[in-house]
Amino acid sequence: MKEKTWQRTWIGGTAVIAFLVLWEIAMPLGLVKVADISRPSLVVKSFFELAAAGEIFPHLVISLKEFIAGFFLSLIVGIPLGVVLGRYRFSGLLLDPLLMALYTMPRMAMMPLLVVWFGVGMGATISVVFLGAVFPIFINTSVGIREIDPIWVRAVRSFGGTEWDIFKKVFLPGAVPPMMSGIRLGVGRGILGMVVSEMYASTAGIGGQIANYGNSFRTTELITLIAIVSLLGFFMVDLMRRVEERVRRGRMEGWQ
Amino acid sequence: MRHIELQQVIVSFPQPGGGELRAVDGFELKVEKGEFVTIVGPSGCGKSTLLSIVDGLVQPSSGQVLINGALVKGPSPDRALVFQEFALLPWRTVVDNVMLGLELQRKYTKPQMKDKVSHYIQMVSLEGFEKHYPHQLSGGMRQRVGIARALAVNPEILLMDEPFAALDAQTREIMSVELQRIWEQAKKTVLFVTHSIDEAVYLADRIVVMSGRPGRVKEIIPVNLPRPRSLSIKDEPGFVRLRRHIWDLLEQEVQRQVGGKETKS
Fold this sequence. Notes:
The complex is a heterodimer of chains A (256) and B (265). Chain A is mostly helical and 256 residues long.
């Protein structure tokens, strides 16, 4: 396990470093103009300048607040919804087509309406984060519930367990691994939604900043901000993956 | 003292194409307290269904089951099931799996439950594996967990549904010896469904041989071999005779099902 993680970091890291070196020397070699792709060294410098000017962290805080609010909402809606859809056949038959239609609906096309409903600023972005994250969470949760082995239910029932006991002792813990995957997917989609919504409907937040610098073609600053978002997403998803692994370790191996 | 009584139990299942399938027909059985009764019969004769009925998970279409003279209406802690597939919760350790039934009873504090659990883990010889997860155990050990889990709620009746069917031949024999020891120690009434004639004779005070579908009692055979029985008892004339006799009965049933017509038994 340890060695695998180490290998992943090392091999993957090599590719990242090679990419950065290539990027850095592309301009001096005359392959590209600096205005097109900037350079890593300029990006690092611009990071410190922007940070000193208060162009990053206050916006990052706004973005994170929106993200956390939207994501939290998607958890408290997605998990119970997934449980109900997975557990009761009728609810699945009733709601699956509707939910699938909503799922495939392009969220960005809804932006004008979301702005009308929730206002420019945090409201709209929270709703986009929610819409992005809630689907993978409830879909994976309901899959987890559907894949529960009925023999576990029989075991609890044979000891006189109530429906609530079955839910608590079989369905919830049994659905954890797919539910965790759904939550991890939801994080990625939530961050994506957060940035795009801010670009469209807000002047604040990281997405708002990206729109500002992008519209004035300030390539270096734009890339700096994009890199911040990528790193944020990377660490969040990585964090979820670690939580997921921890949950699976030992108890889950050889089961799912 | 009469412990379990099945009176004229009939079980029918609705069929996909309409009509119904009669799985068990007019099943009658009386089991005394502390008795070890094994049930053998051809595949599909409703043996497992009978256990679910005694447990209360399934209601008979007609007839009734009495425990200590009282009608069975649903599962209750005085009966515990041991499953062929073990039915352990894979995310729980051995200790937590054994504790499942106790948790559901909501009668004991955590330390009390822990005491009971370690007692039964010891009884099924699983000390040292308390923190293991089911996938880390062999089949035989998993079923020991299943047995400990059933015993932990201190039921009067143990219902065992082909508990050793998923185990290899040697483990199976060892588990039979173990079960006999546990039964003598724990003093339970046992209903034990099996496909193995050897297992049925080795463990039983009485053997119920069932007919093919719909399942009826074909014959009830007392086993008067002395206890405790060692595995070598399987070579003794009394054992061999019983095995032969049961085999003949089952063969008739299989022939009847294959031939589609009744032969005199």
